[in-house]
Amino acid sequence: MADALKIGGRDLTSRLFLGTGKFSANRLIPEVVKASGAQVVTVALRRVDTDYQEENIAAYVPAGCILMPNTSGARTAEEAVRIARLARAAGCGDWVKIEVIRDNRYLLPDNYETIKATEILAAEGFVVLPYMSPDLSVAKRLAEAGAAAVMPLGSPIGSNRGLRTRELIRILIEEIPLPIIVDAGIGRPSEAAEAMEMGAAAVLVNTAIATAGDPVAMGRAFGLAVEAGRAAYLAGMPGTVDYARASSPLTGFLRD
Amino acid sequence: MIKGTGNVSFYEERLKYAGFDFEGFFRRVTDADIERALARDRLAPQDYLALLSPRAEGFLEEMAQRAHRLTVQHFGRVILLYTPMYLSDHCVNQCLYCGFRAQNRLERKKLTPAQVEEEARVIAATGLKHVLILTGESRRESPVSYIRECVEVLRKHFTSISIEIYPLELEEYRELISAGVDGLTIYQEVYDEEVYAALHPAGPKRNYRFRLEAPERACRAGIRTVNVGALLGLHHWRSEAFFTGLHAGYLQDKFPEVEVSMSPPRMRPQMGGFQPRVKVGDRNLVQYMLAFRLFMPRAGITISTRERAELRDHLVRLGATRMSAGSCTAVGGRLEHWSAGQFEISDERSVAEMARMIYSQGYQPVFKDWHTV
After folding, report:
1. Helix (H) and strand (E) counts in chain A
2. Residues A135-171: tens digit of each pLDDT
3. Would residue A251 be called left, alpha or beta, if left means φ above 0 and alpha means ψ between -120 and 50 degrees?
4. Does B68 reach chain A within 8 Å, measured CB to CB?
């Protein structure tokens, strides 16, 4: 398949991952999936309720999608591991997005606990996608620990502030041999396109879609932006110059 | 323990405001102070107090717009539903304002584990997964071992169990957490220490400091969520709201891993007929919620059925994140036998009716938002 994103033995054609925690109704999830083309949908296990199908968020993820449970609410590696195991036991598959957060003011992830959880879960055969604060040495450790991708934040969850960590993400894209998926902080389609132009493998979006005036239309806009950004990256982004091309070049005398 | 708070407890933190002239502060607040507070990303305590001032009533709509935006941004369009379950109304305290106070003559009740199971089934059938269990203060009738036994029964039916009981020692909190409790609700009732003493003339609840520091002990014991509050109507609401916010902020700074929330409960009619000392109107309640949301953008706000249906419908869009539904304040009240409740509730809608109302506002009712692991 041309330009497929390969993660955990799967070939993905869509590079937009969808978060689900903030929708005003679960029934919007399949509509947004359809409009955006998203193939990976993350759901907090804390919200999955197999006893109550009508209100069970996981039941709204269309059959063709990869359901990626996340460990939202975990404060330690140990809790994240327990949540991931519960998710697998509940039939949510092998993919897991690790979220370990010990900071309820900014919801910034705890990289140290995240590495520990990644190590344990990768060894147990999970396809592990850890959410992290962008940091090169942490990303290397996550790769060594067996992560299937690395998910650095663009800015704090729900902040819609865009790619504030751009420089650090750029370094991860250059140095880490795993897909880099920008997760959190992307507030508008142009920022998703920007991440993709930089060479991010995918982006994960929830707040900007779920809290938009028309979430379905916004899902479509993000799908298009991610495609455009990816196409631009593949086309080879021309370098930018901030000076005019001199009409009398300094090296014009060189003849040989 | 992060930040500079070290081992200073909230009791000591609060003493910094001993003798603070609230009336003077409110007289001096200007429109510019309020506009500055509204423009800040992170509000200082004096900004919060400015938003609680009578003068800020003129900015209610601006506050509402910003509070609404922040709540949607951080929590999404969702409201978590839970319900209270009273286990026992035996109580040795003398709180002048409470229907369960020791000298009120009522037939006291305590659920047996079998009755807990029976009531749990009734609640679970509504789809709720979060339950808040309550008892009066009686270490003889409802000791920690009894509460633990009830929690073990409830775990079969609910994924999140919070307690609203008398303050415990740290080890006791640890015991209940290991049994499956993940949340603590404890209202200080009144932050003003002198008024507190007058309203609690006898019983273990007279110990102001032991109660005030209960959330800290629970946090140290590893609780996931704490919910604090002042009972509105017992003292000047603006200063009580201020201290509640400071308390929440203190807990969030000191225990960043804990989810902090607050309730703004207003007094309701109850057996014994205590009259609220201070009137707290709807406008006051809304101002309090909005100011708190701006001060603590990621903290939860819990609205119980003490408030009437029509007002609760509006509060969905004004910063609320959790609401009770299908409530009953009597021990065993969902079973066949009737008994007197702690207070009269105002919103008697069923869980299904509440869910419909929330959907009709363009919000999603969430029945499960934690799974004890």
Report:
1. 8, 10
2. 999 999 999 999 999 999 988 877 778 899 999 999 9
3. alpha
4. no
Whole-number Å distance between alpha carbons of B37 and B245: 15
Q: Helix A166-175 crosses helix A136-145 at what angle (to 10 degrees)? A: 40
In this prediction the pTM is 0.89
* CA angle (B345 as vertex; B339, B348 as ends), nearest 5: 100
Mark B194-211 as b/e (b = at least 16 C-beta within 10 Å).
ebbeebbeebebbebebb
Question: Do residues A238 and A197 make contact, with C-beta atoms less than 8 angstroms apart?
Answer: no
User: So what's the ipTM on this one?
Assistant: 0.81
Q: Say how far apart CA B17 and CA B36 lie, in whole Å.
A: 23
Provide the token pair at A86.
Answer: 């519960």
**C-alpha dihedral over A73, A77, A83, A88, to 10 degrees?**
140
Q: Residue B180 and residue B34: Cα distance in Å, rounded? A: 44
What domains, with CATH codes, occur in chain A?
5-235 (3.20.20.70)
In this structure, which amino acid lies at residue A91? G
- The SS3 of residue B131 is strand
Which pair of structure tokens corresponds to residue B135? 């008892």
User: Annotated catalytic, A97?
Assistant: yes
Residues in A closer than 8 angstroms to B72, CB to CB, are 22, 211
* Ramachandran sector of residue B328 (left: φ over 0; alpha: ψ -120 to 50; beta: rest): beta
Q: Which residue of chain B comes nearest to A213, CA vs CA?
A: B362
Which of B72, B129, B256 minimises the CB distance to A103? B256
